[in-house]
Amino acid sequence: MRNLDCSQEVPNDFFDTVLASKRNSNKDPDYTLRVEGYKPNVRLHFDDYNLRFGSNTLVGINPIGYNGQVRDDLLKLYKYDNSVIQKLKTEITTSINGRIINSCQNCTINAVNSLDHIVPKEEASEFSVHPKNLFPSCSQCNGIKNRFWRENGQFLFLNLYTDSLPNLQYLFPIVNYNNGVPEINFSINNPNGIDGHLYNIISSHYTRLDLINRFILDADGVVSDLQYRIHSLKGELSRQQIIDSIINYENAKRANNGYNYWKSLLTIELVNCKALMDFFFLPKVVGI
């Protein structure tokens, strides 16, 4: 999990570009004209969003609460496969070295195939195409979040544009090796003194997205990958050299994918499990 840079699009200009990409239909020849009429009020709320985004106080924003045709018209602006929206997605998911980050940073499990509305569009249709309100996500995380975003004055999920993830470990893999099979679990803890407010959001994010169970379901792939890597290096390096090489590699991945990137942390915990490494390295006794 890592922070992403938000779009540099000017929100008012982006709204205009999206609106210009829409077309009136024979059934609704006045659609774009109606939306033009909403713009002055929407832009006032854009100004509030921009200020709160900059100060990381979006949790206190008060949506207009449009309903009826106005709400429907504003929601109609957003369509995931719209070319303008897709261009925005490409901008957000392109790293400074020009590579596409195609994994959902809400979970780091699935591929990006949707844009999550940080302030839900169902509650705040005026922000349906505000560029800083759109975050690349998988449909699974997007569906779980749905309309839930704040409770008791606190975000329920991380805003990975504005909540700076700490370079302190809070995700801890647990590996027990029994009867030839590694048993894997994870815990979320704060032994390293992460700011309490931020840690509460991190804990809520992982809990509500059910990330621990989703990591466990994907953990066999990490174990298999580790076994293949060890097998490919045996005969070239010593056991300790292989372990050191894997740990160094995974720590380098954490620098790019996030300090608490679950696959790297799990791999490091696995290679530090002596019983599992004995199974991978010691010669197998073949029955006669």
UniProtKB/TrEMBL annotation:
Residues 104-147 form the HNH domain. It comes from the Bacteria. GO terms for molecular function: endonuclease activity; nucleic acid binding; zinc ion binding. This is HNH domain-containing protein. It comes from Flaviramulus basaltis. The lineage of its organism: Bacteria, Pseudomonadati, Bacteroidota, Flavobacteriia, Flavobacteriales.
